[in-house]
Amino acid sequence: MRFLLVNPFYPISETPSPPLGLAFLAAVLEKAGIEVKIADYVVTPYSKEALQAEIKSFKPQIVGITAVTMTFYNAEKVIKDVKSIDPDIFTVIGGPHTTFYAEETLNSVPELDFVILGEGEPSIVKLAKIINDKHTDFENIKGIVYRKNGTIKRIEPALYSVKVNELPVPSRHLIPLARYRALHMPVSMTTSRGCPFKCIFCVGRKMVGAKVRYNDPIKIVDELEYLSTLNFHQINIADDLFTANKKQCTAVCDEILKRNLKVQWSSFARVDTVSLEVLKKMKAAGCTAVSFGVETGSPEILKTIKKGITLDQVVEAAKMCVEADVIPHASFILGLPGETPKTLQETHEFGEMLKEIGVSYGYHLLAPFPGTAVRDDHEKYGIKILSNDWSEYHANKAIVETKDVSYKVLDKIAKHWSDELDNWLGEIKKRMEKGTAKEEDAWQLINLEYTVINYDIMMESAIEKHGFWKNSNSNSDTTDKDELMILAGKVHKYTDYDQHKVFDSLNHAYNNKNILYTRENDNITWRWADYL
Prior knowledge:
single chain; seven-stranded mixed β-sheet; 20 helices; globular
């Protein structure tokens, strides 16, 4: 049995990290004795021809694909292409979007065979085994939606069927990690699943359940230690509730300190789950930054969205972070129920006040994802949904409005925020040209340029097309930098940068072992390192 997992295209502007959900699925499939491959079209260019070559080479019986709302159309195209290439391949999709839009998805995509609901690990293994045994008793699989005799059949998932501390380590060896590293993306891990909170804009609780289940601290640090060997610039602990259980959080930090593990990491947290004691312990264990979902500067909106926090708690959490020498970040959502010009001003002023404390903050615009209360009850909450074009659900464009705030106002704020970022980068560039830029500021701009260059080269397959040649002067002592300059000369046309800037980017990638080359006799061949 061979199972191909697909990560559909996801824009680089959304800062994608290596697909952790697919890596978990791959791990449980491999543990069950199933051969697995991951095709990652976030960092390799997608085409039907590329997919066809993958299928011809790997010969999968099942193709599974993940999707969030904004990538659903890309996932849909892959599913259609799979069936066009080989109608006998079973197709399955999972993720938050289709979990809460399962029947609609099956009705709109006839090429799709199965939708997996919620946490997919138990369901995906059972599905693979039944298909491998050529059985059709799919009704014995919990957490699945499929067609039977012309009708759609839904079997609800078993509650808390995934024991987090029994999950195998995610199969990251199947992901082209070096490409993500070359793009300066973070690598992420999780330590728990479950969310007891009821925020109306989020599906977390409905997706993984209210009960929080924790992994064993020793296993957590084992994984963190492994990730530290991969030389990513940032490791994110991606679960929202890492700090919620003081005993668990402290145990993880103590294990890091016990091993004398020198690793930098960041985490997410709720402002009502941190303390100065815990933050200082996290700092000692290598935590550099904590991100908080603050959402709004309006106390009334906080109540409406059932966030369960107060602005005083936000301020206190920020001050504690600063005292513990942990960088605090805050994110806000604009366009929430009850948004008015006054609440927008309150949010802006609150963000600026946090900035004076030492908090960096940013905005997103409300996206009413399938499964959220704000979508299901949008009329009750006074939200007008303007678009069901899923590709627009990236939270950077207004697709809702309230009775007091139009989409034009929200888009104007988003544009102003984007323009401020561009102006800030422009100022750094001017200071770099004058030689007055701070090293840390300059490096942010340089890293961004390298990301853009490397991404353009990746998605145009430029190295695959032009990264090989015959060195006619084989007796000369050509250096690695000589070969890099030749490569830059061949591929810079795929970017908006000149040969020397592309050389700098490739040289950085080479020094970090993200690209490699071989020299056999007179032949030079460059490639992305891909798997670490």
